[in-house]
Design brief:
By secondary structure, this protein is an alpha+beta fold. It contains six helices and 14 strands. The radius of gyration is 31 Å and the shape is extended.
C-alpha cells in the first residue's frame, strides 16, 4: 500500500510541482468565436390492427399513433479575457395524436328452446397533445478600457404553450380539453470589479507535459509560453463538438499545430499506446480550478405568469403571477494554494418586493454562503470539503423564514478503464417557518453516506 501511494504521489509531483504557480494568475482566456445553427426533427407513425375470433365473441381493434417534433437552435459564443457574449435561441415543438377504435360482438347461447342473444359494443376515441417552448438566453460582460471594472447583462425568456384534447366520437360527454401557458422573464444588470477565471486548462497543460516526459518525448519542462499556448487550446475543447461532426480528430489536429509551432514535438509517429496515453489527459477527473477575486452589485427583474384552463364542469381557469424587483450583491474568491489544492468562497445576498397587488408573498430576501476546499491526493484521487448556507425571508411582517445548511465531504478514486470509486458524507439541516392560516414550523436534520462505483462508456469496443 505504501509503495502504491508513493508511486502515485511521485507521479503527481513529477508533473506539477516543478511548475510556477504564477501560471494560474497569468492565464488569460483566449479569443474564441463559436457559432452553430442546427435543426433536429423526428417523425413517427405506427398503426396496428388486431382481430380476435372466439366461439362466442368476435372483436377487432385499430390503433394509430402519430407524433412529430421540430427543434431549431442557434448558438453563439464570443469571449476573450476582457469581453464575453453568449446567445442561445431555441424552439421545441411537438405534436402527437393517438386514435383507438374497438368493436366487439358477444353471442350468448341460452337453454335449448330460447333465442340466441347478441350484444354489441363500440369505442372510438382520439387524443391529441401539442407543446411549444420558446427559450432565449443571453449574457454579456465587458471590461471598461482595460480596467478591472466591468458591467454585465443577462436575460432569460421562456414561453411554454401546452394543449391536450380528448374526443370520444360516440359519446360527447367524455370530451375534454386542457391547456396551459407558462411565461418566465428574467433580466439582470450589474456592475462589478475584479476577474474570476476558470484556470483548469493550465493544470491540463501541466499534466500533458508530465506524460510527454514519461513517454521520453520531452527532456525539460515546457516554457511558460508553451504551457499558456496549450492551456488556450485545451480551453476550447468543449466547442469542437458544436462545430465538427468528428470533434476529437480536429481538436488533436490543432494540438499538434501548437506543439510544432512552439518547436516541442510532433505526434505523427506515435504508436497506439502513446497516442492513447496522451489523449487521456483532457478526460482525466479533476476538480474545477478557479482563480481570482470578483465582486458586484446589480438589479434583477423577474416576472412569472402561469395560466391553466380546462373545460371540466368543476374546473375554473386559474392564473398566478409574480413580479419581483430584486437588488443583489456578491463577492467570490478562489486561489490555488499550491498545484494540488485550492480554496474558495462565495457570498451573495438579494432581496426586494413583489409588485403584484395582493400577492401572497409580498417580498423575499436571501443570504447565501459557500465555502470550499479541494485537494488532489494523486492524479487520480480527489478529496473535497464544502459548506453551503442559505437564509431566506418571505413576508417580513409575518416573519416567514427558511434556513438551510449543508456540509459535504467527498473522496473520488479514478481507476483505469474509466472506473470511478466514490465515497461521500453529507449533513443537511433545514428550519422552516411558514404562515398558511396557522403557524407552521418544521425542521429537519439528515445524514447521508454514499458509496458507489461508476463506469464511463465513452470508448469504442474492440472485437477480437
Amino acid at each position: 500500500l505504501i509503495s502504491f501511494l508513493s508511486a502515485n504521489l511521485y507521479a503527481q509531483n513529477y508533473g506539477l510541482d516543478n511548475a510556477d504557480l504564477s501560471l494560474f494568475s497569468r492565464y488569460r482566456i483566449p479569443e474564441t468565436t463559436v457559432k452553430n445553427f442546427m435543426v433536429q426533427t423526428n417523425l413517427n407513425y405506427t398503426s396496428s390492427h388486431n382481430n380476435n375470433s372466439q366461439p362466442n365473441q368476435k372483436s377487432n381493434s385499430l390503433s394509430t399513433i402519430f407524433d412529430y417534433s421540430l427543434a431549431p437552435q442557434y448558438f453563439l459564443r464570443k469571449e476573450s479575457d476582457d469581453n464575453s457574449l453568449f446567445l442561445n435561441i431555441s424552439a421545441n415543438g411537438t405534436y402527437a395524436r393517438q386514435s383507438n377504435k374497438n368493436q366487439s360482438t358477444t353471442t350468448s347461447y341460452p337453454i335449448v328452446g330460447q333465442e340466441v342473444s347478441y350484444s354489441f359494443s363500440e369505442n372510438d376515441n382520439h387524443n391529441s397533445r401539442s407543446r411549444v417552448v420558446f427559450d432565449i438566453t443571453s449574457s454579456c460582460r465587458n471590461y471598461l478600457n482595460n480596467s478591472m471594472i466591468f458591467y454585465a447583462l443577462t436575460s432569460d425568456m421562456r414561453l411554454s404553450l401546452n394543449d391536450e384534447y380528448y374526443t370520444n366520437s360516440l359519446t360527447k360527454r367524455d370530451n375534454y380539453y386542457y391547456g396551459s401557458k407558462n411565461q418566465n422573464y428574467d433580466f439582470q444588470f450589474g456592475i462589478g470589479w475584479g476577474k474570476y477565471r476558470n484556470v483548469t486548462p493550465v493544470v491540463t497543460a501541466l499534466r500533458f507535459q508530465q506524460r510527454l516526459k514519461q513517454l521520453n518525448l520531452l527532456n525539460n519542462d515546457l516554457s511558460s509560453k508553451a504551457v499558456e499556448d496549450l492551456a488556450e487550446q485545451f480551453s476550447r475543447q468543449d466547442y469542437y463538438s458544436s462545430v465538427y461532426n468528428r470533434p476529437d480528430k480536429y481538436f488533436w489536429r490543432d494540438i499538434e499545430k501548437v506543439l510544432i509551432n512552439d518547436n516541442i514535438v510532433s505526434l505523427n509517429s506515435l504508436n497506439q499506446y502513446a497516442n492513447s496515453y496522451l489523449r487521456e489527459v483532457p478526460n482525466e477527473m479533476r476538480f474545477i480550478r478557479n482563480e481570482g477575486l470578483a465582486s458586484g452589485i446589480g438589479l434583477e427583474v423577474n416576472y412569472v405568469n402561469n395560466y391553466y384552463s380546462a373545460n371540466y364542469t368543476y374546473y375554473n381557469p386559474k392564473i398566478s403571477e409574480e413580479f419581483y424587483t430584486l437588488a443583489n450583491a456578491y463577492i467570490q474568491y478562489s486561489h490555488q494554494l499550491n498545484l494540488n489544492s485550492q480554496f474558495g468562497f462565495l457570498l451573495s445576498a438579494n432581496g426586494g418586493p413583489n409588485l403584484i397587488k395582493n400577492a401572497i408573498t409580498k417580498q423575499r430576501y436571501m443570504l447565501s454562503a459557500q465555502l470550499g476546499y479541494d485537494y488532489e491526493l494523486t492524479d487520480r484521487i480527489v478529496a473535497s470539503a464544502e459548506e453551503n448556507f442559505s437564509l431566506s425571508f418571505y413576508n417580513s411582517d409575518l416573519q416567514e423564514k427558511s434556513l438551510y445548511n449543508s456540509v459535504s465531504l467527498g473522496l473520488n478514486y479514478f481507476i483505469e478503464d474509466n472506473v470511478l470509486l466514490k465515497a461521500s458524507y453529507n449533513w443537511r439541516y433545514s428550519d422552516d417557518k411558514h404562515i398558511s392560516g396557522i403557524n407552521n414550523f418544521q425542521w429537519n436534520s439528515n445524514n447521508y453516506v454514499n458509496l458507489g462505483i461508476t463506469y464511463y462508456f465513452d470508448r469504442g469496443i474492440l472485437y477480437m
